[in-house]
Amino acid sequence: MGRHDEAIAQLKRAVELDPLNLNYNDNLGQMYREARQYDTSIDQLKKTFEIDPNFAPAHYDLSFTYREMGKYDLWLEEWRKGANLADDREDLDIADDAARVYATSGYRAALLRQAHAFEQVDVARIRMKGFKKIFVLYRFKGPRPVRVSFFQPLKSTVGVSHSSVPTRYVVG
Fold first, then answer.
1. Which of 66, 148, 50 is nearest to 79 (CA)?
2. Residue 42 lies in a domain
3. Do 127 and 159 contact (CB within 8 A), yes or no?
4. CATH number reported for the structural domain that contains residue 54 in this entry
5. Fewer beta carbons under 10 A from the terminal one: N or C of the chain?
């Protein structure tokens, strides 16, 4: 935490050197989000879409940005786009289910449904998708964090201890 300015400067330089690199552009958008520069993050991710509108990781990252801004309808919409473009039927099913729950019961219920659905996912899929995605998906701005049981199986599978999971990334 805290070295966002340095990271942004490095990523800007990378984009200057290779402006058509989707990963550099997407990573810059992610870093703006991590620095809580949400409007700049959205602008950067839209620049990524100008290069390739079908770049699924940028749609996922835009969904995370919208979620952190409290724009939950846009969060779900971009999450679905990312899942469709990645041809990830399981993720799309989870997004659709979260959208149904959100429509009837609100954001907190949708996020908890999402956590429960990912808890049921095979650990091999979690390893393939990447550890970071799981934690980013479960960030919650609620009043009190709650432990989610799916972190425990990860310990033996990917060698990450439960104590290393930052509480700001735990569902509340």
1. 66
2. yes
3. no
4. 1.25.40.10
5. N
